[in-house]
């Protein structure tokens, strides 16, 4: 039996029940695919349900304030996905009358939609014979065919796309694409897959050559950068100060407390000399304390943030100018913030 047919039969017997698998509505499929980028299904499912509840249609998502979109996205990371999601919803609603493009080529023109997402939507919603290639597909094809080309290189991306196209079941692209991704997620797992129960075991090159643990090959990531954040929670009994991050960056549009960023951990005395500290507090009396002595380490793809939260109790907040703004303590949880800040807010306020 052919590779693709085996996968489809396996999928029909083993697939997980997911709400986006019960529809071919392009809005629902697009939403699920954007949420599941860089995200496990178990983590992404509650977000998908929340978004569908808050924004049943693309028109609802397009009409929502960006802050509401970012707040619902909070905790998923890679916030550019949420901003692109919102921008594309506006484009589809306002420029396309709510109708999503119906081909791989036209879907690629949407903001935040790359090769994988366009292929997934085009095949699942419109039965276009285009292959998907995500992390699961790389792993299945690399092991099954014994391909050691690094998957995070230009050559690897091109080679695996060609292999995926050659193996695609062109008469059942929707089912096949979902099958190979599900197979990679449940059966051909990254660590310790159960090859004794695999429907592809008789033809798997990696299994025959005992290279399952070596494939796929991925070149080492760039060096991790360390950054040191000292947040100032300046507050009275009723209010505190937040600022919105502007400019390009992973947290663009999100809120945080006033920040002192340094090249290394700093002492109390060094913190008091920081320009942000002196500008916001001036000569007024305050009580300064460190929330926790040990740094909170927040790991991102290419950087680790070593973070401390300093609580600064004052009688009254100073006059503020952009980007700082006064916020009532009871309203702090309403603002979209990075998960690093969100965890602190949940524990502290």
TrEMBL record:
Molecular function GO terms recorded: purine-specific mismatch base pair DNA N-glycosylase activity
Pfam families xref list: HhH-GPD (PF00730), NUDIX_4 (PF14815)
Cofactor annotation: [4Fe-4S] cluster
Cofactor note: Binds 1 [4Fe-4S] cluster.
Keywords for this protein: 4Fe-4S, DNA damage, DNA repair, Glycosidase, Hydrolase, Iron, Iron-sulfur, Metal-binding
Family statement drawn from the similarity comment of this UniProt entry: Belongs to the Nth/MutY family.
Domain HhH-GPD: 35-186
Protein's name according to its UniProt entry: Adenine DNA glycosylase
Function (record text): Adenine glycosylase active on G-A mispairs. MutY also corrects error-prone DNA synthesis past GO lesions which are due to the oxidatively damaged form of guanine: 7,8-dihydro-8-oxoguanine (8-oxo-dGTP).
Keyword presence, Signal: no
EC annotation from Swiss-Prot or TrEMBL: 3.2.2.31
InterPro entries, per the entry: A/G_AdeGlyc_MutY, DNA_glycosylase, HhH-GPD_domain, HhH_base_excis_C, MIG/MutY, MutY_C, NUDIX_hydrolase-like_dom_sf
Catalytic reaction list: Hydrolyzes free adenine bases from 7,8-dihydro-8-oxoguanine:adenine mismatched double-stranded DNA, leaving an apurinic site
